[in-house]
């Protein structure tokens, strides 16, 4: 088996490589950001991708987005995502198109070597490995239109609700205005807000956000 690893922590990246090597699993490439992950996947065509959710430059969802992009390019590519936190919305994004060859584990599970290696083999073989804590959060979440959004998209929508322009949002989040525009486009798509001459999608998105947060409160 050959894997590609994406993890910005040098120690954790080396540790995972060592664990895999001990059981005869080859690391074809080990990178520390989402862009290099995509390059490595295209070059090596691995049997499995192991990726951290949060990586440079914004440490939000770069690793996950790169993994999802790779699965679109290579349908069925096994992906095992690891995260420091329970982030149900990211798990939903990962398994949205099916659970075959996908995994989402908390980093603390990596400390249990036997369980981690079992998850690696299972996902590489086309199975699934979703952390119990993540499953519990996903089951406890009520159906809410905002559940479809990533953490960053929800953050962008919240700033839109405060009346900030795209430029102001970009400055607040320390990202490019183009990145903000991409997030807003994703928000419109996930909330089912199609372009219309009669309605302003930005206002409709903000109203959806306000209704949802009022219910949660």
From TrEMBL:
Cross-referenced CDD domains: LuxR_C_like, REC_NarL-like
- Positions where 4-aspartylphosphate occurs in the chain: 52
Residues in domain Response regulatory? 2-122
Tell me which Gene3D superfamilies the record gives. 3.40.50.2300
Q: Which GO terms describe its molecular function?
A: DNA binding
The residue ranges of the HTH luxR-type domain are 142-207
Q: Which Pfam families match?
A: GerE (PF00196), Response_reg (PF00072)
Could you list this entry's UniProt keywords, alphabetically sorted. Answer: DNA-binding, Phosphoprotein, Transcription, Transcription regulation
Q: Source organism's superkingdom?
A: Bacteria
Instruction: Supply the name of the protein.
Output: DNA-binding response regulator, NarL/FixJ family, contains REC and HTH domains
> Which source organism does the UniProt entry give?
Amycolatopsis saalfeldensis
